[in-house]
């Protein structure tokens, strides 16, 4: 019988193999489909990928750990501005000063983007750690208010920092983000959250969601696990902010108000708390829906809101209701011999 170490190594190898295949498919799609659909639909696809990262990362905190956070936009802003400052003031001038040909310059741009995205994620994760340790001892409405205040504090501090544009906004950010990077990060976020939830720590988070007092009585370090989920969610929110910054080439704090945090919460609630598949579907649908309803003109947002209300009345558990997609829903199961 294989020991636990052998099983773990085999599982890790299988995970990396699936992600490598996924990355290959994404790169092939970026070479074919993206150029074919046009700039408008490419932008929608990129926004869908960014929103998937935001929804899945918040689902770790809200859906799996049961901590009602409405400050996710603050982490997104911090990651976006941090990565934009690093690229604008340091890496992009260094790249522009090098006499490089087109291919080598493109390779170095991708390396630079990886660096700034990771830096933005780390900046957001540090903020999540500093904020999470004192606030995650709270519960329910008190936690929601604390995270809301935290997100607004981050936004207002950025608004009054002239180094990154202040009230004028941050302009002339290099455009390094593309379809491939957006969906590589989204896939990585899904993979990390999925593997975490399948681990012992993930079961501890689920226990926290069901009954925190009972989980503490069983010896689970509730604060440590909540902070871990909060920091990891903030890390991926910061990376999503970096992707947005290097696609739009402009950042303003008006894009990171508490309404943006509420929008991300809606992704999680509509998709189903505790369902990664639901978060992906909801992020895609709610990104496309406002564009599809443009024909309604002035009634567009009314129609959008009405559909959300109907959905919550008819299926309050969300689209997936805590379940995940399984291939057996499409492929017929083998008959037992």
Q: Could you list some keywords that capture this structure?
A:
single chain, 337 residues, mainly alpha, 12 helices, 0% strand, globular
Give a description of the structure.
This protein has 337 residues and is an all-alpha fold. It has one domain. It contains twelve helices and no strands. The chain has helices spanning 4-37, 39-64, 72-96, 102-135, 140-159, 179-197, 200-210, 212-217, 222-248, 258-271, 276-292, 300-314. Helix 3 packs parallel to helix 5 (140-159) and helix 6 (179-197) packs antiparallel against helix 9. It is globular and about 65 Å long. It starts with a helix and ends in a 23-residue tail after the last helix.
Rg over alpha carbons: 21 Å
Report the total helices.
12
Oligomer designation: single chain
Mean of pLDDT: 85
The total tally of domains equals: 1
Order of helices and strands: HHHHHHHHHHHH
Structural class: mainly alpha
Largest β-sheet summary: none
User: pLDDT below 50 for ≥5 consecutive residues: which ranges?
Assistant: 330-337
What portion of residues is helical? over 70%
Number of strands: 0
Distance between the termini: 25 Å
Identify the overall geometry. Answer: globular
**β-strand amount:** under 5%
């Amino acid at each position: 019988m294989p020991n636990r170490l052998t099983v773990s190594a085999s599982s890790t190898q299988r995970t990396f193999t699936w992600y490598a295949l996924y990355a290959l498919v994404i790169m092939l799609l970026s070479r074919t489909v993206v150029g074919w659909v046009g700039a408008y639909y490419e932008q929608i696809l990129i926004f869908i990928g960014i929103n998937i990262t935001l929804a899945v990362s918040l689902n770790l905190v809200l859906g799996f750990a049961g901590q009602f956070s409405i400050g996710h936009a603050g982490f997104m802003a911090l990651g976006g501005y941090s990565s934009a400052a690093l690229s604008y003031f340091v890496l992009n001038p260094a790249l522009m000063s090098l006499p490089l040909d087109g291919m080598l310059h493109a390779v170095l741009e991708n390396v630079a983007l990886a660096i700034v995205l990771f830096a933005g994620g780390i900046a957001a994760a540090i903020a999540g750690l500093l904020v999470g340790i004192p606030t995650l001892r709270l519960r329910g409405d008190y936690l929601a208010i604390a995270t809301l205040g935290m997100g607004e504090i981050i936004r207002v501090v950025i608004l009054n920092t002239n180094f990154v544009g202040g009230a004028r906004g941050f302009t002339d950010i290099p455009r390094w983000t593309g379809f491939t990077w957006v969906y590589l990060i989204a896939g990585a976020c899904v993979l990390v959250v999925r593997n975490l939830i399948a681990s012992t720590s993930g079961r501890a988070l689920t226990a926290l969601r069901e009954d925190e007092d009972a989980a503490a009585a069983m010896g689970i370090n509730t604060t440590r696990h909540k902070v871990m989920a909060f920091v990891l969610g903030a890390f991926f929110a910061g990376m999503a902010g970096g992707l947005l910054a290097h696609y739009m080439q402009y950042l303003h704090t008006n894009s990171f108000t508490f309404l943006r945090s509420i929008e991300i919460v809606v992704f999680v609630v509509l998709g189903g708390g505790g369902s990664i598949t639901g978060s992906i579907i909801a992020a895609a649908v709610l990104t496309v829906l406002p564009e599809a309803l443009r024909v309604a003109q002035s009634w567009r947002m009314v129609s959008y809101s009405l559909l959300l209300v109907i959905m919550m009345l008819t299926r309050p558990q969300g689209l997936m209701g805590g379940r995940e997609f399984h291939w057996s829903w499409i492929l017929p199961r083998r008959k037992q011999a």
